[in-house]
């Protein structure tokens, strides 16, 4: 029974954080303050009442529409809140503890979620949020110096690959934002698991790439969503991937 209370508490905490992520996702790319003014309807500009701003539940109660002008509210808002709530529970199931490192880990992956959505919308991410997530990832465990070193090594390795592709192949395969996410991967996973995460991210990116190819479209495919998902998959199943890596050299 005690575990279920913890799960419910963390899920509720997570959806509240998800509501804040929605603010970051909307305001940061527009260089707007995340503190003021209070949330308002982007269509009629009416200030949203507190009871109209309860994560997930208000969207359901209002039937996905503004309480005043009845303009549709994107379903993406409650989805992001729900995903953040699930994220809070999954991280607890992995770490089995609620301490400072739980919160830095949760903040890191929440930040990656926000960056992924912003990258989908704008094909670019704000440096201030990106660097904040990198800093949080370095403090996700007690091995702060090791995390910092791994972050630098992965950033360095990805920078070399980026330079090679741009110089010899004349193709911009990674942006500066991707390199910082590489640092997050290094801090969270270490060198070996970062390589696996990058590989998984590339595999995940192939699916939409094939779709666009079949549709004869050539959009700029954002890579941060795949890097973020690949990082979480490898982090969550790190025991399996560590065993797999060890077996290669057994």
From TrEMBL:
<feature type="domain" description="Prepilin peptidase A24 N-terminal">
    <location>
        <begin position="12"/>
        <end position="94"/>
    </location>
</feature>
<dbReference type="InterPro" id="IPR050882">
    <property type="entry name" value="Prepilin_peptidase/N-MTase"/>
</dbReference>
<protein>
    <submittedName>
        <fullName>Peptidase A24A-like protein</fullName>
    </submittedName>
</protein>
<dbReference type="InterPro" id="IPR000045">
    <property type="entry name" value="Prepilin_IV_endopep_pep"/>
</dbReference>
<keyword id="KW-1133">Transmembrane helix</keyword>
<feature type="domain" description="Prepilin type IV endopeptidase peptidase">
    <location>
        <begin position="107"/>
        <end position="209"/>
    </location>
</feature>
<feature type="transmembrane region" description="Helical">
    <location>
        <begin position="100"/>
        <end position="118"/>
    </location>
</feature>
<feature type="transmembrane region" description="Helical">
    <location>
        <begin position="189"/>
        <end position="214"/>
    </location>
</feature>
<comment type="similarity">
    <text>Belongs to the peptidase A24 family.</text>
</comment>
<feature type="transmembrane region" description="Helical">
    <location>
        <begin position="75"/>
        <end position="94"/>
    </location>
</feature>
<dbReference type="GO" id="GO:0005886">
    <property type="term" value="C:plasma membrane"/>
</dbReference>
<dbReference type="InterPro" id="IPR010627">
    <property type="entry name" value="Prepilin_pept_A24_N"/>
</dbReference>
<keyword id="KW-1003">Cell membrane</keyword>
<dbReference type="GO" id="GO:0006465">
    <property type="term" value="P:signal peptide processing"/>
</dbReference>
<feature type="transmembrane region" description="Helical">
    <location>
        <begin position="221"/>
        <end position="238"/>
    </location>
</feature>
<feature type="transmembrane region" description="Helical">
    <location>
        <begin position="6"/>
        <end position="26"/>
    </location>
</feature>
<dbReference type="Pfam" id="PF06750">
    <property type="entry name" value="A24_N_bact"/>
</dbReference>
<keyword id="KW-0812">Transmembrane</keyword>
<dbReference type="GO" id="GO:0004190">
    <property type="term" value="F:aspartic-type endopeptidase activity"/>
</dbReference>
<dbReference type="Pfam" id="PF01478">
    <property type="entry name" value="Peptidase_A24"/>
</dbReference>
<keyword id="KW-0472">Membrane</keyword>
């Amino acid at each position: 029974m005690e575990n279920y209370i913890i799960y419910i508490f963390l899920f509720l905490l997570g959806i509240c954080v998800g509501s804040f992520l929605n603010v970051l996702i909307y305001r940061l790319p527009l260089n707007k303050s995340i503190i003021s003014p209070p949330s308002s309807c982007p269509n009629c500009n009416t200030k949203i009442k507190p009871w109209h701003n309860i994560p997930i539940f208000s969207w359901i109660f209002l039937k996905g529409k503004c309480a005043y002008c009845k303009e549709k509210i994107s379903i993406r808002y409650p989805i992001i809140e729900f995903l953040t709530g699930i994220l809070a529970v999954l991280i607890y199931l992995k770490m089995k503890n609620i301490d400072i490192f739980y919160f830095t880990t949760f903040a890191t992956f929440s930040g990656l979620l926000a960056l992924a959505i912003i990258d989908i919308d704008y094909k670019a991410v704000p440096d201030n949020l990106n660097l904040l997530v990198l800093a949080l990832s370095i403090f996700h465990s007690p091995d702060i110096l090791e995390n910092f070193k791994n972050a630098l090594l992965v950033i360095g390795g990805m920078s070399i690959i980026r330079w090679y592709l741009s110089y010899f192949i004349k193709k911009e395969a990674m942006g500066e934002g991707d390199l910082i996410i590489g640092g997050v991967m290094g801090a969270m996973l270490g060198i070996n698991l970062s390589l696996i995460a990058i590989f998984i991210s590339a595999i995940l990116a192939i699916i939409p790439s094939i779709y666009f190819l079949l549709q004869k479209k050539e959009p700029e495919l954002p890579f941060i969503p795949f890097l973020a998902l690949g990082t979480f998959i490898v982090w969550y199943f790190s025991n399996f991937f560590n065993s797999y890596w060890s077996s290669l050299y057994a």
